[in-house]
Subtilisin-like protease
Amino acid sequence: MVKRAHFGILVLAYRLLVPLSAEAQHTKESYVVYMGSPSASSGAGDVEAARAAHLEMLSSVVVASGELEPRLSTPSLTHSYHHAFEGFVAELTEEEAAALSDHERVVSVFRDRALQLHTTRSWDFLDTQSGLRTDRLGRRASGDVIIGVIDTGVWPESQSFNDAGMGDVPARWRGLCMEGPDFKKSKCNKKLIGARYYGIQAGSAAPTSSNASLGAVTAAMTGSPRDTVGHGTHCASTAAGAVVADAEYYGLARGAAKGGAPASRVATYKVCSMGGCSSSALLKAIDDAVSDGVDVISISIGMSSAFASDFLSDPIALGAFHAHQRGVLVVCSGGNDGPNPYTVVNSAPWILTVAASSIDRTFQSSIVLGNGNVVKGVAINFSNQSLSGDRFPLVFGAQAAGRYTPASEASNCYPGSLDVQKVAGKMVVCVGTNSMVSRRVKKLVAEGSGASGLVLIDDTEKDVPLDAGSFAFSQVGADLGAQILDYINSTKNPTAVILPTEDVKLFKPAPMVASFSARGPGGLTESILKPDLMAPGVSILAAAMPSTDKADVPDGKKPSAFAIKSGTSMACPHVAGAAAFVKSAHPGWSPSMIRSALMTTATTRNNLGQPVASNTGAVATGHDMGAGEISPLRALSPGLVFDTTAKDYLNFLCYYGYKAKLVRMVSGDAGFACPRGAPSPDLIATGINYPSISVPRLAAGKAVTVSRTAMNVGPSNATYTATVEAPAGLSLKVLPERLVFSRRWTTAAYEVSFGSAGASKGYAYGAVTWSDGAHSVRTPFAVNVV
């Protein structure tokens, strides 16, 4: 009887599971259908014709998929791409997506994923590091360059977008200033010349439960170009904000705030909300930005390095490729998954990928112990504690553990680990030996337990000050932390106060690679050295939306019009602004020429004259900082540039492994043929005319020869001589050793041969530098000895 009952349950379970399985196969999700460069027959340039063609393709596949039940409505498109590239977005089942991927006009089909945001004195610091006069060189900038910022939108009332003194908007501008309930067209001006947003378009399908996270992102974006996060406003003002005197964040970082190209125009494209960014909306924003007439696009967005996407199913890589085809430089953040290797994202060779560094300013939060000793910690806090006020009992977290709570959890300030009776009114000391609990969570745990403040002993992220608001907080490393613990253990009634933060300028050494900054090599290919460049990304002051959260506003203060943020998100617009600055002085330069100028003139020395270091103190490598820290003033006159052509990028796709037919569809060049030897990762390193060199495999006894072609953009009759920086055991030969240019715009080719002469296994780093006495053109290299 029991066996029969058991059999009956199995039959019922089977009958329930079969319909569920069938239903899962027909669940609809948002997919991007990418079709490469627009063709003449696709209705390129005609919005309605292109949209109609996409609907026709979609309808044919939906009908052919043989749905079990008829649709309640006709197929519809969420987005249609038809300017720089062709494609569309629609709600599809897996079966329909697979059918579309087999269509002869389709390059790739991929899920519409939610991407992540990679979330001032910095420009003065860069100018100082260049050693050049800013007044003379700065006059070469013009206001005709347009920067498109694809992010969370804009807070138009910020003084960083004041258009006082600006001339008319360039006649070539074709963009829009979209309206919403809280955003009128009048919010745009001669500085903020465009503002678009991307929500759920009329007629598109509603988000499905299987795509709930993306649905939440899209729904939150519907309605207005206004920034409700603060990230986009910060990035836009960093790139091209007007000069704002006496900018500050509740008294900290006081000074003139400005963007890298304050004379440039800004257009914003809102594709993100607090929940993330829609990849299909981002693709649409790139398509629109190129059509609108922008010169540079700044994207501080990407996916996690743990989920690296193929180049032809990566929305940022695809959009950036076609933007580059149209002469638009795309600058992207490299991600915040550092300091581990193989974490850099947005690493396609046609993208300028940016790492983050510190500047010569830090925020000091001093801890004054009861014995009079002052321990200098790092944080941003606006507490009301002072030397003349009360002292608070000092207790180590492990000594204040709740009942049945392990001391290890209480010492790390785990949620629920502290005994409120033992903590209330006291200064708590916690450690960061377990990375599962972030600094912000530890702060909330201490604050929620009634503590008067928190001292965190943790070397992790110590280079990035935490903003603790009005709560007394300070972070110290293990060495200083040991002094505090010794004081607690040797004193009957230990006490302490944490003083409000003060900013320390002219801090040395700087720059330094930020701990969070993602590192190379690239996960998809090691044959291109990534990141490309480094720029300020730690504690950057820039415009922001005024906070409505009382916890973010110090007692007695009004919400600040500026914010201090850290991330490669902040580094990216620094480079976008620098690129716009170079573009304004050299309007005829291609995107790759501008990138080359920024890379070959980058600095690799800090303000002590020593090699730039990583956050660990070790000398930074090409996989930490790329070519080095940007020097926008030096980039105006680079001497030589490496112009990576469209053919270089198409050859890259072939060498990487894509078939010639797909590459032709991507490029729109029906006559293109892949070069001999493709696919071959080794040929990427040797044959692509990139401003840096990465050799993924160098075996003993087998030399690798890399070719490059330099273009003279300096004076005529110039002669450049090569010098080499190479580690012991790595043999390196440059032929010829001299490059002679009779005129400007002429080119000269050379080869660099690498060989192993007892070099240690693993990556070796160095550089080849060409100099004519006035210019130094530095090309970094990374060689993996196997």
